# Entry
Amino acid sequence: MGELALTVAGKVYRVACDEGEEARLTDLASLVDAKISALKARFGEIGDQRLTLMVAISLADEWSEAMDRVRELEAEIGRLKSAAVQQASERPEWTQTIVQSLGEAARRIEGLTQRMNEASRDESGMRKSGNRFFRKKPRSNLSESIMFHDFGSTRPKIIVI
# Structure
């Protein structure tokens, strides 16, 4: 197990994770820290719990919007496939052209989805990756620790140290 110290909102959290996941967790902690800093700059000192809640809602909203867009793109792929099948059956001579057009459209949509996911990870928040729950848990020896549960994913699993 890897161990690292993450700093979020000026507080240090000691966490453990699977080997090789340290960089990913550090990036995620930096994202949360940046969101908290931005909200502090905008609203001032309004309390840690309120800031944490606002960051959580902000990230959930950005994730929800990204997932809505993914569903729209998936529906578009389905419509394109249906249209291609219908046109292919009506005009057999156009079958190859339609198949090529559909393939190109699917590649473009998948590329857009990948860029959205990358942008989501880089600036706008965490992407959906299963049923994950973060929970801050007070500790007697430490100022605070984080427990992270991830059900059914290959992403890092953080335990309280």
Summary: The helical segments are 22-43, 48-90, 95-124.
